Amino acid sequence: ICLRLVMMVRPPYVLVSFLVSCISLLLFVDTVLCSPVPKLQHSPVQLHPENNKYFLFRGKPEVLISATEGYFFLYYDNLSYSPFLYDAASHGFNLARLFMMAPNNSDFACLNCTGYYSPWASVRDDAAGTVKYNLTQWNPTWWSRLHEYVLLASSLGLVVEISLSTQMYNVDNWHACPLYYKNNIQGVGNTEYWWAFNTINHTDILGVMDSFMSRVVTELNPYDNVYFELCNEPPSQTIGAVATSQYATHILDLIQKVEAPLQNKHMKSFQDASVFQDKRISVYNFHFAFGFGWWVGAIDALDKGYNTRNVLSYATIAFNEADIVFTGETAEESRLEGWEFLLGGGALYNNLNYEYFSQQGQNLHTYLGCLSTFMHKFDFLGVSPDTSFLLPSSRLSSGVHMRGLAQQGRTYAAYFHHGTVEKVTHYLLTPGQWHEDLQIKIPQGSYSLQWVLPCNCTILSSGLVQGGSNSSLHAPSPLYTEDISLLIVAL
């Protein structure tokens, strides 16, 4: 087409400009339209077969760490996902979270969102000044954005948790949803009960969502960097555990049916393990450090033993939403919970941060980048939650919180912080002058020992130590003001 049109273009300088434009167009078509999905060299991200408390992604064991700017990039035209994804990758993050469903209500989705997209085609009534949606016709722009987002994330090495559904939370959000009967030309969703969206009782709503979720699962099947969350924050406190379990089971069955004839099978996640369990779920999500009475929080989950095979043998656990904006949590307080969760046996930490590019947001990215660096200093596939290597004769600072991981004779990692549970959802940082005087029992051999500052990865002290003597290893920490981590690795 371009070559034919070239013959019609005059004068020569216009011809050159036109050729450049044609080349750019052809490159775009080839890279984005002609080959939208990368060829897989590995199976999709999955639990690691050697230790199902961690992940296997593109041939490597992984923990997943990120701070997500927002979940709603597919829905608003003033939201650009490229800067977020590139910045996330630059900090060593390997995770993002993306919602498939959102009402046309910026109070629900994000701050100052404009230009709403829907997965369904819109029908404008100019006389009435309203827009409705045709739930039998797709909006190609939305679906293109989905592929573009996941493809770019894939090229940057980012796993994307795809949340297929979400709680509506209140009637205002429900009234702004395309599936509310006043917003679609089919009249689907004629109910004022916002929680009906997350049950199997309203067959018209369920039928539309089944069709929608089936297409999402089908479209994303070729990608190795996605897995599916059944529903974000299902309203179990409103509809009850039985209805929640029925809804979750329905979506699990749907994914299984859709993927049966397809090449790839993807992980599924769900919040939380205290409400519903099914061995088809690979990841149980927990929101906020503490659940404020709605659900089990992520630090609560550690205390309940969900990080151990004794309590949850077939799946791992994820702290997949911690929030700065809604709760007033600082970057430093987020650092405490992220480090504690992963050093306590969790496999994923994600902080929802609408202030992503603020100074607080960038500080948090540094802290989480250090967490990723620390976790990749040792072979975490062999470890399990364990602090028994610290002898009772250790003298710990007053009020310290401690978590640890260990593989006998090979790896010992511990994290110490001073945060108080004075806020409902997270820690309140309590700085001071702190010191841990540890007595450690490890088998005979030579080990490297490091004390690391979590805020900037600084190695405060390091050295070679010997284990296996009749007496314990004395490992006093340097003075610290907020938190500190210890790593001992066999040589």
What order do the helices and strands come in, and which of them pair?
Blueprint: H1 2-6, H2 12-34, E1 46-48, E2 51-57, E3 60-62, E4 64-68, H3 81-90, E5 95-99, H4 106-109, E6 120-125, E7 130-138, H5 140-155, E8 159-163, H6 171-175, H7 203-219, E9 226-229, H8 236-259, E10 268-271, E11 283-287, H9 298-303, E12 316-323, H10 331-343, E13 348-352, H11 359-375, E14 384-385, E15 401-407, E16 411-417, E17 419-420, E18 428-429, E19 437-440, E20 445-453, E21 458-467, E22 473-476, E23 483-490
Parallel strand pairs: 4-13, 5-8, 8-9, 9-10, 10-11, 11-12, 12-13
Antiparallel strand pairs: 1-2, 2-3, 6-7, 14-15, 15-16, 16-23, 17-18, 19-22, 20-21, 20-23
Helix pairs in contact: 7-8, 10-11
Characterise the protein shown here.
With 491 residues, this protein is of the alpha/beta class. The chain has helices at 2-6, 12-34, 81-90, 106-109, 140-155, 171-175, 203-219, 236-259, 298-303, 331-343, 359-375, and strands spanning 46-48, 51-57, 60-62, 64-68, 95-99, 120-125, 130-138, 159-163, 226-229, 268-271, 283-287, 316-323, 348-352, 384-385, 401-407, 411-417, 419-420, 428-429, 437-440, 445-453, 458-467, 473-476, 483-490. The protein has an eight-stranded parallel sheet with strand order 4-13-12-11-10-9-8-5. It has a six-stranded antiparallel sheet with strand order 14-15-16-23-20-21, covered by helices on one side. A three-stranded antiparallel sheet has the order 1-2-3, with no helix packed on it. A hairpin with a 7-residue loop joins β17 (419-420) and β18. α7 (203-219) packs across α8 and α10 (331-343) packs parallel to α11 (359-375). The longest helix is centred in the middle third of the chain and has 24 residues, at 236-259. The model is unreliable at 1-35 (pLDDT under 50).
